[in-house]
Design goal:
362 residues; alpha+beta; Helix Hairpins; 4-stranded antiparallel beta sheet; 14 helices; 9% strand
């Protein structure tokens, strides 16, 4: 029974590789060709590192707080992911194709092929710290740098357009909110002014407090009159004019106190009326303060949208502008292929020197 050969044995003992001289020359030529293709044509690597800008680092956090900016110096993870998505978008590739006249330069008639070429040649990835890197390897260093520069400009323009769209939508919402808050503010101010005119209180809060303080004053005045009446009765009779005057004044004060302490809100200057008017005044004041606060807050945010328009282009920080790497670039595919052929050649020689037992039997 013939033993089964391994894959290495089948290849080494095949007719093209069976001759040691031919085998070694063949491997040497193949490895030399792969190494040559790994070095030539020479590739030039061009790259750029960018970072999505955080509006809070621009000193505009008060006006741009509604954008939800994070505390990172280079922007939050969402901003990085948006930048990566924009970099891989069709609009960015269209801009690069038009800016570099790529279809004419590559002699491509189909625009889809140009998009595929850009997807294959330009790599965009995120690094630690919220940094985005774009890179490409081309045989022409000027073209490689121009390609990365076109991508950087396209990403900046696209992010600016997205920011402007967001600001425009936000402005329309805020304009509606400001208009509604203004109408509510005018309505609350009118109701409060009508209450002041009805009650004839220039300042309802202080006027109502003054009415409420009259009861303790009346009670104190009654006690004083009673002391005065008791003192007068020690030296005069009930028919004395002074005693009768004090009694009349005391009765008048008691009637006023009774009127003040009445619970009927229809009674003028009564406790019931004071409670009713103070409750209504408090409700109208709260409504007026709330309407004024909403109007001021919405107006401040609406003013902030103008600042957002001015800073819409401040969406990327260029850490490293497009540059051409000075280190020599290698074609990784052919370099790996040369290494694989070298390992296979060594394995083949080792197989010939020390074949396995089943191969020796042959």
């Amino acid at each position: 029974m013939t033993p089964r050969r391994s894959i290495m044995g089948t290849l080494v003992l095949s007719r093209p590789l069976q001759n040691p001289k031919h085998r070694r020359i063949g491997f040497a030529v193949a490895i030399a060709v792969c190494l040559l293709l790994a070095l030539f044509p020479q590739k030039y690597r061009s790259a750029a590192t960018l970072a999505p800008s955080d509006p809070a680092t621009l000193g505009l956090s008060g006006a741009l707080n509604q954008l939800g900016a994070a505390n990172s110096v280079f922007g939050n993870q969402a901003a990085v992911e948006i930048t990566l998505r924009v970099a891989n978008s069709r609009l960015v590739r269209d801009y690069a194709i038009a800016k570099l006249d790529l279809m004419h330069r590559l002699d491509i008639s189909d625009r889809v092929q140009a998009h595929r070429w850009l997807q294959r040649e330009v790599t965009t990835r995120s690094l630690r710290g919220g940094i985005v890197m774009m890179e490409t390897e081309q045989s022409d260093p000027d073209f490689a740098e121009a390609l990365i520069r076109a991508y950087s400009d396209a990403i900046r323009m696209r992010l600016a357009a997205i920011n402007l769209q967001q600001t425009d939508y936000k402005r329309k919402v805020l304009e509606n909110l400001v208009q509604k808050a203004s109408d509510d503010y005018d309505k609350a101010q009118t109701e409060y002014d009508n209450f002041r005119l009805t009650t004839r209180y220039s300042d309802p809060r202080f006027a109502i407090e003054a009415i409420g303080e009259r009861i303790p004053a009346l009670q104190a005045a009654i006690k004083a009159k009673e002391v005065q009446l008791n003192a007068a009765r020690e030296f005069a009779t009930e028919d004395n004019m002074s005693v009768r005057q004090i009694v009349a004044e005391l009765d008048a004060l008691k009637r006023q106190l009774t009127q003040q302490q009445a619970l009927d809100p229809t009674e003028q200057n009564s406790v019931g009326r004071v409670v009713e008017q103070s409750t209504r005044a408090g409700r109208l004041e709260r409504k007026l303060v709330l309407a004024r606060s909403l109007y001021e807050v919405y107006s401040r945010y609406l003013q902030g949208t103008s600042v957002e328009d001015l800073t819409s282009n401040a969406n990327l920080r260029v850490i490293e502008p497009p540059f051409v790497d000075t280190s020599r670039q290698f074609n990784i595919f052919f370099l790996a292929l040369a290494l694989l052929l070298a390992l296979f050649a060594i394995a083949a020689e080792f197989y010939v020197l020390r074949p396995p037992l089943e191969a020796r039997a042959l």
